[in-house]
Each structure stands twice: as structure tokens, then as C-alpha cells.
Write a structure and sequence with these properties.
By secondary structure, this protein is mainly β. Helix content is 5%, strand content 25%.
């Protein structure tokens, strides 16, 4: 029989990206090799090569040579191919971790012969069923087959696993009803069956699961059944799981309301019931869960008002009640949730004012989403106190008044959306302090004044949308400092003067809209420098001169409206073959030249309007290829 060193060197010779194994040489001595540990007799007892990016297979690893190997950890590499059945010859193996690789094929049932084994095969490409032999491993504690392509519905041959404390089968294609062998595995503390296709009531399995979860799994601390097709009510028997800290049953087909007994599960830290059609009100007794840190009940068909008792959840950091039919005002008692990080109440029917006290009471707040409601009143000035905020969404409400200057205190903000309200007054100069902001949306309000020149300091900005307001004056030259800008919407305002000539230079703008203003002069010739422009509208202005020549090479153009201006130059200098172009209106200018056959390459055109220009010559016969064309006006 070959030596352990020879066996490892032979295996190494089949691997790639194995620079971490550079000291695997005979002169170095086996027990000093990277990742190798030996017992007192000099035999290899552990091989740990975790997260090294090594690629290859296990085919050349001669398992029979390693009688003392008790740990094989290859997690986080790029191994592929089948898991060899020969690994069952590692008779001392107690821990096998092949997680986060690219292993495929079936799990060899022979692994069930390894009497001391703990098994981690998660995050691979393993397929077929779970071998029932694995459930007979007599000492297994950790059983993790999550994130594979395993599929089966019949668990009749499976044995109880009384030694298992951690079981994860998430993200596979496992179906059928709740597996009974799990209920007979009485020491499980962590159970994750999420993201499978299990179905039927949680509360029944052969008429006995109604009481089995609490009676047979008394030590359960974490239960995740999310993203399955379980139906029926949330079973009352769950209330007897006195040690349960995490209950995740979101994204199923559960109905029957939120049961009041959940308020008695005092150890709960996490409660996720979202994306079910539970219906009914939020029980005030949930406010008794004084250890709760995360509560997610979004999109659950909830009605009535939000109980003020939830304000007693002093430990909560995440609360999402979005996408329900909740009514009434935000309770002032929510100020008691002083550890709040992320708060979502979007897409309900809430009204009244947004309490400013929330922003003074939540110093850790990073995400506040209250969009798509009917909130009224002013944006509270106190929001400037929530200086850790990253996301602030108040769009689609009925907010009035001005944008408070205190907004400039939110220097950690990434996204800000106040659009579709009734805000008035100017954009505050302090907005220039938001140097981390990537998205600024203020469209569909009644804002007046100019775009402040301080906007040039917002160099992270990618999206700037101030359309459909009453803004006026010239664009500040500082707008050209926004080197990450890719979406610019200025339409439906009262802007005038020329557009800064360097706007777009060196950028990859995908959307630019200047429509329905009083701009004049020439469009920036470098507007489409990045050749990424898709939607471009400048209609109904007083633009003159040439169109940007880079338009001709913007192959992703989709929607172009330039009518109602005074452009000049040859039409063929501005447009070429744009296979995605659906709509083009350049009517009412002074463009010249002839129509080339290139236009037949714009195969998705539905509208082509060039009327009232000075274009001459014949209409190419190839226009007949434009089979989607609905309007042609020349």
C-alpha cells in the first residue's frame, strides 16, 4: 500500500489553483504540510483545506490509505464531479465538510456506513434523493444538505435521527407533507426546511403532527419553514415550544389570521409571517414579546389599525408591516422602540402626520420606508436627527410644505425619494451635504426655485429626477461634476437657458429628459459619450444647432422624442442602425439630408415622425421591412 504522503501528492497532481499546497513536498515532512494534522503516531488525522479556491475532483484521493483521518474539510473551494463512494473507506471519519463547492450527482449511500460522521454537503449541485442510509448514522449531530438540487416526496424508509441537533435541508426540491422522521429526531434545536415544495397543513401529518412538534421536538430553538406551500392555520401547538427563539413561516399559503398565542412565546427573537394571506388585525399581545428583535408581517392581508402596544417591543431592530391594508395613524408609542434599525410601513392606507419623535427616538435607524400611504402634513424637521439613515422613502403620500433644511444632516443617506407628494418651495442648499447619495427623486411635486449649485458636491449621484415640478432658471454648471450620473430627468419644469456644454462628457447616461421646458442653444455634443443612451427626450424646447453625433452609435436607443425644436444638420449624421428603437419623433425642426437604407435596420420601430423638416430624396424601398411600423409621417 502506498504511503499517506504519496497518496496526497498523487491527488495534488490532479488539482489546479493549488498554490496553497506549495509546501506539499516529501522533504518537508508530511505532518508539516499546509492543512495537514497528524496524530501521535504520525498518521494523518485531519485534512483542512478550507476556502483556498482549489479546483479538481476527489477521484484520485485514495481513501483506503488514511485509517486515522477523522476530519476532511474542503469547504469553499471549486471541487466538482461526484462525491466518491470510496470515502466510506475512511473508517475513522467523524467530520466531512464538502460545503460550498460544485459537487454534483447523487449522494453515495455508502456514507451511511461511517458510524461517527457529521455531514456538511450544503451549497453544491447534488441531485436525486437523500439516501435513507444517512438517517441511520448513529452519532451524527450536524446534518446539512441545504442548497442543492435534491428531490423526493417519500420519506417512509427514513429512520429517526435522535443524535442530530442541527438539521438543514433548505433550498432543494423536497416535497410532500412534513417528514415524520424529523418528528422522531427529538434533540433537534435548529431545523431549516425553507425554500422547498413541502405542502399540506403544518398542523397535521398522519393525524399526529398537531401535537408532535412541541412534544417530539421540545428543544427546538429555530424553525424555518418559509418559502414552501404549507397551508391552513398557524397551529396552536407551536405555543408549547417554550425554547423557540426563531419562527420563520413566511411565503406559504397560511390563512386564519395571526393567532394570539404567539404573544405568549416569550423567548422569540425572530417572528416572520410575511407573504401569507393571514388576514385580520395585528394582535396587541405581540407587544408582550419583550425579547423580539425582528418582526416581519408584510403582505399578509392585515386590516384595521396598528396597535400601540407594539411600542413595548424595546429590543426590536427590524419591523416590516408593508403591503397590507392597515389604516389609521402611526402610534406615537412607537418611540419606545429605541433600537430600531429598519422600519417599513409602505403600501398601506395609513394617514395623519409622520411623528417627528420617531426620528429623535431611533438613533440607530438606517432604513425608513413609508411610501404609498396617505400621510399628510409636513416632513418632520426631526428627521435630521437620524444621522445614520441610508434609505428614506416617503414617496406617493400627501405630504405638504417645504423640504426641511435639516435634511442636509443625513450625510450617510444613499437613496432619497420624496416624489409624488404636494411639496412646495425650493430644494434646500443643504442637500449638497449628501455626498453619499446615489438616488435623488423629487418628481411630481410643486417645487420652485432653481437647482442649487451645491448639487455638484453630490458626486455619488447616479439618479437625479426632479421632473414635473415648477423649477426654473438655468442648470448649474456644477451638474457636470456628477461623474456617476446615468439617469437625468428634468422634464415638465420651467427651466431656461443653455444646458452646460460638458454635461454627459465621460458619463454613461442611459436616460436623459429635458422635455417641456424652455431650454435654448445647442444640446451638449458629448451628452451620449458613453453610447449607453436608451431614452432621450428633449421635445418642446427651443434647442438649436446639431444633434449630438454620438447618437448615431447609441445602439440601445429605445425611445427618442425631439419634436418642437429647431435642430439643424444632416439626419444621417445623428442616426444609424438602432435595432431596439421603438419611437422616434424629430418633427418640426430644420434637419436636412436624405433617408438612408440604414433605417430599415431599426426593425422594432412603431412610430417614425420626421415631418416639417428639410429632408429630401426618395423613401427607400427597404422601409417595407419595418413590419411593426404603425405611424410614418415624413
Amino acid at each position: 500500500m502506498r504511503s499517506e504522503a504519496d497518496a496526497l501528492l498523487a491527488w495534488k497532481a490532479t488539482l489546479t489553483d493549488a498554490s496553497a499546497l506549495s509546501n506539499w513536498t516529501k522533504p518537508a515532512g508530511l505532518c508539516s504540510w499546509f492543512g495537514v494534522s497528524c496524530d501521535a503516531a504520525g498518521r494523518v488525522e485531519s485534512l483542512t483545506l478550507r476556502g483556498l479556491g482549489i479546483a479538481g475532483t476527489l477521484d484520485a484521493l485514495d481513501a483506503a490509505v488514511f485509517p486515522a483521518l477523522n476530519k476532511l474539510d474542503l469547504n469553499g473551494n471549486n471541487f466538482v464531479g461526484a462525491i466518491p463512494a470510496s470515502l466510506s473507506r475512511l473508517r475513522s471519519l467523524a467530520e466531512l465538510d464538502l460545503g460550498s463547492n460544485g459537487f454534483d450527482g447523487a449522494i453515495p449511500p455508502q456514507l451511511g456506513d461511517l458510524s461517527n460522521l457529521d455531514l456538511r454537503l450544503y451549497n453544491n449541485n447534488l441531485a436525486d434523493g437523500i439516501p435513507h442510509q444517512l438517517t441511520r448514522l448513529p452519532r451524527i449531530v450536524h446534518f446539512d444538505l441545504g442548497s442543492n438540487f435534491l428531490n423526493m416526496t417519500d420519506y417512509g424508509k427514513f429512520s429517526p435521527m435522535p443524535t442530530v441537533t442541527f438539521m438543514s435541508l433548505y433550498l432543494n426540491y423536497l416535497g410532500g407533507s412534513f417528514p415524520e422522521f424529523i418528528l422522531n429526531s427529538g434533540n433537534i434545536t435548529y431545523l431549516d426546511l425553507s425554500q422547498n415544495i413541502f405542502s399540506g397543513p403544518i398542523s397535521e401529518h398522519s393525524s399526529r403532527i398537531r401535537e408532535s412538534l412541541p412534544e417530539d421536538l421540545p428543544n427546538l430553538r429555530y424553525l424555518n419553514l418559509s418559502y414552501n406551500s404549507f397551508s391552513g392555520r398557524i397551529p396552536a401547538s407551536l405555543s408549547k415550544l417554550g425554547k423557540l427563539q426563531g419562527l420563520r413561516i413566511s411565503s406559504n399559503n397560511l390563512t386564519g389570521g395571526i393567532p394570539e398565542f404567539l404573544g405568549s412565546m416569550s423567548q422569540l427573537r425572530v417572528l416572520e409571517l410575511d407573504n401569507n394571506q393571514l388576514g385580520g388585525p395585528i394582535p396587541p399581545v405581540l407587544g408582550r414579546l419583550h425579547m423580539l428583535q425582528r418582526l416581519d408581517i408584510k403582505n399578509a392581508g392585515l386590516v384595521f389599525t396598528i396597535p400601540s402596544e407594539l411600542g413595548d417591543l424595546a429590543e426590536i431592530t427590524f419591523l416590516d408591516l408593508s403591503m397590507n391594508q392597515l389604516t389609521g395613524a402611526l402610534p406615537l408609542a412607537f418611540a419606545g422602540m429605541r433600537k430600531m434599525w429598519e422600519f417599513g410601513i409602505a403600501s398601506n392606507f395609513l394617514n395623519g402626520e409622520i411623528p417627528g419623535v420617531l426620528f429623535t427616538s431611533w438613533p440607530e435607524l438606517i432604513n425608513f420606508q413609508a411610501q404609498n400611504n396617505s400621510f399628510t402634513g409636513k416632513i418632520p424637521r426631526e428627521l435630521g436627527m437620524a444621522t445614520r439613515l441610508n434609505f428614506l422613502y416617503l414617496f406617493s403620500n400627501n405630504l405638504t410644505g417645504t423640504i426641511p433644511a435639516e435634511l442636509g444632516e443625513l450625510v450617510n443617506l444613499f437613496e432619497l425619494d420624496f416624489s409624488v407628494n404636494r411639496l412646495t418651495g425650493p430644494i434646500p442648499n443643504s442637500i449638497g451635504n449628501l455626498t453619499k447619495l446615489t438616488r435623488l427623486a423629487l418628481f411630481f411635486n410643486g417645487l420652485t426655485g432653481v437647482i442649487p449649485p451645491e448639487i455638484g458636491s453630490m458626486t455619488a449621484l447616479q439618479v437625479l429626477d426632479v421632473s414635473a415640478n415648477r423649477l426654473e432658471g438655468e442648470l448649474p454648471a456644477a451638474i457636470t461634476s456628477l461623474r456617476n450620473l446615468n439617469y437625468l430627468a428634468l422634464f415638465n419644469n420651467n427651466f431656461s437657458g443653455t444646458v452646460p456644454p460638458d454635461l454627459g462628457k465621460g458619463l454613461t447616461l442611459t436616460d436623459a429628459s429635458f422635455a417641456n421646458n424652455s431650454f435654448s442653444g445647442e444640446l451638449p455634443q458629448s451628452l451620449c459619450d458613453g453610447l449607453a443612451l436608451q431614452n432621450f427626450t428633449a421635445n418642446q424646447n427651443n434647442f438649436t444647432g446639431r444633434l449630438p453625433p454620438c447618437l448615431k452609435n447609441c445602439t440601445d436607443l429605445y425611445w427618442v422624442r425631439l419634436e418642437g425644436n429647431h435642430f439643424t444638420g444632416d439626419i444621417s449624421d445623428a442616426f444609424g442602425v438602432h435595432r431596439n428603437l421603438v419611437y422616434l419623433d424629430i418633427s418640426g425642426s430644420q434637419l436636412t439630408g436624405k433617408l438612408s437604407s440604414d433605417w430599415s435596420g431599426c426593425t422594432n420601430l412603431t412610430v417614425l415622425a420626421m415631418n416639417n423638416n428639410r429632408i429630401s430624396g426618395n423613401i427607400p424601398a427597404t422601409f417595407c421591412r419595418l413590419i411593426y411600423l404603425q405611424l410614418l409621417d415624413l
